Structure formats: structure tokens, C-alpha cells
Amino acid sequence: MLIPHQKFMQRCLDLALKGVGNVAPNPMVGAVLVYKDKIIGEGYHEIYGQAHAEVNCINSVAEAEQHLISDSTLYVSLEPCSHFGKTPPCTNLILANKIPRVVIGSMDPFKEVNGKGIAMLRQNGVEVIGPVLEDEANWLNRRFILFHKKKRPNIILKWAESADGWIGRKDAEISISNSFTQKLVHRWRMEEAAILVGTQTALTDNPRLDNRYFPGPSPIRMVIDRKGTLLKQSNLLSDGKPTIVFNEKVSKQEGAVQYVQLPQANSWVDAILDFAYQQQIQSILVEGGASLLQSFLDADCWDEIRVIKSADAIKLTSDVGVKAPVLKGLLPDSIESVGNNSVLYFKRKDL
After folding, report:
1. In what order do the strands lie in the sheet with 101-106?
2. Which of 54, 191, 192, 304 is labelled catalytic?
3. Minimal CA–CA distance to 302: which of 181, 156, 204?
4. 323 in helix, strand or coil?
5. Taking CA 196 as the corner, what is the angle to CA 149 and CA 345, rounded to the nearest 5 degrees?
6. Residue 19 gets which letter from DSSP?
7. Around Cβ 280, how many Cβ atoms within 10 Å?
8. How confident is residue 266, by pLDDT bands cut at 50, 70 and 90?
């Protein structure tokens, strides 16, 4: 059974998750206002650039209970901001409403906050308690936290493989995942800022790389095309949706397609990560192919790996088939059964 602080913080985390896909590059944040163990207000950060969780929480308090605000405890899943951004500081709002006690889930690593919000509240007589459910709060905002701590996006490697270890064919697209895991993949796309594939995947599969099966936005599409071999009529270059093409030749804009020239000599993994950091892209879902996935594995650059494993073998040979990456010595943290597919989840231990 959860103690009161944990119970109300869990409610904050549940609320915060409602902002997934809509608040980046801001973190997902939820807040509840509690008077004598009763929630009198709650809210979450709903859309980037609009009101923060604390504002929506306080504004939700019924008029008949607004006199209780100054005797209540505010629970918030992330340290309140103390700087002017697209909205005023939430610390100012807390002080203006004379809220005497604030319980936080985790610290905000953003350099404009990073302890300053807590310090400001304490300097003005507010009791600050926490962190509470810190691991859960950090995991919820792992993209945001890693981005500000490590100065790079959160990297998720994803692929589907057959029971006998094939990821695809060299000459044609094949389907390994079932309809349920296909929808799950589109939910993953909705949750991440960008999606990346290599040249061969773009040529063979002609993917759209958007989110069609789950409510929410689509990620920024990225493709590696070193030599400019993608056909202009391919979906990624012709459908009018924003696409970033990493190549060796040119930097230019053609309609919705942005060509970004990367250095030939340096690691393309590092160059892509640096580009994403500069563009405030906090997470990248790497969907293949095998060579691109292996390059991230070889560089030890990943934070999560998600492998959809089919129960069916497809019995290819090496002249036509592409083998799935090999995860040496790694064991999944969890396994989810989805029809005849299993989803294996791997997490870095230093997140």
C-alpha cells in the first residue's frame, strides 16, 4: 500500500503521461493540490508553449474551495521552474498563492532550473519535500533528463526478427510483426521526437515512417542517403512531409526535404547525435536496417532496445536474407506477449 506522498505522486505521474507526444521538448509534468488528504485540484502540461501543470492544477480548483489553497500541499512530478520561458515561472505562482508545502518527484536537470526552483521556494518559506518516487519520475522523463545531462538524444533501437533470426530480405519488403505489434510500433513513433532509417531500408521498403495507427503526432523523419541514391518519387522525398536526409554531398532545402551534409571522415553516429542535440531533438527511434542498427550497437550508443520476435521461422538463406543484429550478453529486462509475437525490452542500466 502506498503511503500518502507516494499515492499523490503516482497520481501526478499518471496525469503527466497524458502529455506524451505533445509537450516535447518540455518534460511531461503532472500536479495535484491536496487539502487534508483530499485532492482539490489537478492538472498536467498539455501542449508545448501553453500552461504548465502547476497552472492548470491551481486553475482547476473549484471556486468554493479556492480559500483552501493556502493551506494545501502541492504535489508536482518535476521540480517547479523558476525562469521565464514561454510561460512565467511556476515558483512565482506557488508563492503568489501562498502554498506552504510542495512535494516533488524529481529534480529538473535543465540548466535554467536545476535546483533553483527548490532554492527559491525554500528561501521564501515554502517547505519542499522529496524526491518522492524519483526513479519512476525520472523514467517518465528519461528523454528530457538524458538530453540535458548527456547532451544527446535518447536512442531507441527497434527491429522485428523471425524465429530463425532474420530481419528481412535484401530484395523485397517482408512482414514479420503482426497487426497488433504494428500498431504498437506506431504508438512508439508517436512517443518519440524523430525516427531514423538507413539507405537500404528506404530503398527496399519505401516506408512512410509516420504514425497512422495511433492517436497523436508523427515523428520527424530522418534517413541516411550517403550518395544520393533515393528516388525522388519515394515516399520520404515526395509526400510533402518534413524529412531530413543525411548525406555526404550537400546541405540544402528542397520543399519539405532538408538535406544535411555530414563529414565523411567522422563517425556518422556521433554527427547525427550532435545534429539532433543542436536541433533540440530529444529522442530518436532507430528502425533499421540491420547495418544502421549494428552501427549504433558497435558505438555502444543506445538507451533502449525493443525487439519484436515472431514465433514463425521464414527460412531464408544468406544470399537473399538479412540477419538480425546480435545482442551479445544482453538479457531482456522484460518480455511482453502480443499475439504470436513477443516484444523484448532492453534498458541501459545507467539511464
Report:
1. 38-44, 30-35, 73-78, 101-106, 127-129
2. 54
3. 156
4. strand
5. 65
6. G
7. 11
8. low
Q: Which residues have a Cβ under 8 Å from the Cβ of 347 and sit 6 or more positions away?
A: 303, 304, 333
DSSP 86-99: SS--HHHHHHHTT-
Secondary structure of residue 12 in the 3-state scheme: helix
* Those residues with Cβ within 8 angstroms of residue 317's Cβ, 6 or more apart along the chain or in another chain: none
Place of cell 508545448: 48
pLDDT greater than 50 at residue 1: no
For 203-258, the pLDDT digits (tens) are 989 999 999 998 889 999 999 999 999 999 999 999 999 999 999 999 999 999 99
pTM over 0.90: yes
54 is catalytic: yes
User: Cα(337)–Cα(136) distance, rounded to whole angstroms?
Assistant: 23
For the residues of 65-76, what is the DSSP string, one character each?
Answer: GGGGGGG-EEEE
Say how far apart CA 234 and CA 202 lie, in whole Å: 8
